[in-house]
Amino acid sequence: MDDSRFTRRGSLVRLGGFLATAVGAAGLEIETSEGAGPAAVASGAVTCVLTPEQTEGPYYIANEALRRNITDGRPGTALLLRAFVVNASTCKPIKGAAVDIWHADAGGVYSGFGQGAGSRTFMRGIQRTSAQGLALFRTVYPGWYQGRTVHIHVKVHLGGDVLHTGQVYFPDTVTDAVYRRAPYASRPNRDVRNADDSIYRNGGKKSQVKISKNSAGVYVASIVMGVHRS
Ligand code: FE
Fold first, then answer.
1. Ligand 1 mean position to 227 CA, how many Å?
2. pTM for the complete prediction?
3. For the segment 172-186, what is each residue's pLDDT rounded down to a tens digit?
4. DSSP track, 121-163
5. Residue 181 alpha carbon to ligand 1 centre in Å
6. Which of 145, 143, 146, 163 is nearest to 155 (CA)?
7. Domains, the chain, with CATH or none
8. Of 140, 65, 1, whose CA–CA distance to 10 is shortest?
9. Ligand 1: distance of its center to the CA of 17 in Å?
10. pLDDT value of position 179
């Protein structure tokens, strides 16, 4: 094994360790069957790869508030989103990056547009990453809108540069379970699932969250975003 491979593997193992630490510190649970550490690296559960760039789409609004709870009190199934930002070259967490997310509400509406034009803030917000590279958001499970599978948009900024523009996806089986309940159940069935989404098909699988419920019964979705530092 050459030196560069050794170093990379070492970084991957450390990444597993920091993920486990971060999870413990936040008092949250992720899928323990996946675990962390060397076994997780070997199984591919913890990776350090470049996350695919995906279109920001038509609904981005810049300069939203720095806040964890982005719901503005609107209804929906509670969701904690744990977005980790790591350097795809070194596998080390990036501290102080601004993670900017936006998504449709339970009714499939974006603030600032169409039926949501009366507000420019619901389901939008920014968090800075911690020393562990973690940006934590409190929101609701996104609703669907015509022609797209369920997703959350994300941008990562650092020092005035955009490091990443992407979209985060959810397992269809979890979405099915959430959508069987209020307020989602009052809408028609969604028209597109992951495999049928033209944007998801271009790398979306690498941007799919790991999701489970914590001890309080709240969905916790975790994603590791590997980015290039410019
Ligand atoms: Fe969208």
1. 21
2. 0.82
3. 999 999 999 999 999
4. -TTEEEEE--TTSEEEEEEEPPPP-TT--SEEEEEEEETTEEE
5. 22
6. 163
7. 52-227 (2.60.130.10)
8. 1
9. 33
10. 98
Q: Do you find a cis peptide bond into 183, omega within 30 degrees of 0?
A: yes
Residue 152 near residue 142 (C-beta atoms within 8 A) = yes
The DSSP string of the chain is --HHHHHHHHHHHHHHHHHHHHHHHHT----TTT--SHHHHHHTSS---BPPP----S---SS--B-SB-STT--S-EEEEEEEEEETTT--B-TT-EEEEE---TTS--TTSGGGTT-S-TTEEEEE--TTSEEEEEEEPPPP-TT--SEEEEEEEETTEEEEEEEEE--HHHHHHHHTSTTGGGSPPPS--GGG-TTTTTTGGGGBPEEEE-TTS-EEEEEEEEE---
> Is-contact 163 50, C-beta < 8 A?
no
Q: What would the pLDDT profile of 85-98 be if each residue is shown by its tens digit?
A: 999 988 899 999 99
pLDDT of 49 reads: 82
Q: Give distance in angstroms: CA of 104 to centre of ligand 1.
A: 7
Question: What was the pLDDT predicted at 47?
Answer: 57
Distance of CA 132 from the midpoint of ligand 1 (Å): 28
The two three-digit tokens of residue 146, written as one number? 């015509």
| Strand 219-227 to 78-87 pairing | parallel
Q: Quick one: pLDDT at residue 48?
A: 74
Beta bridge partners of residue 127, listed in sequence order:
99
Cα dihedral 106→122→154→15 (10° resolution): -90
Those residues of the chain that have pLDDT short of 50 are 1-43, 45-46
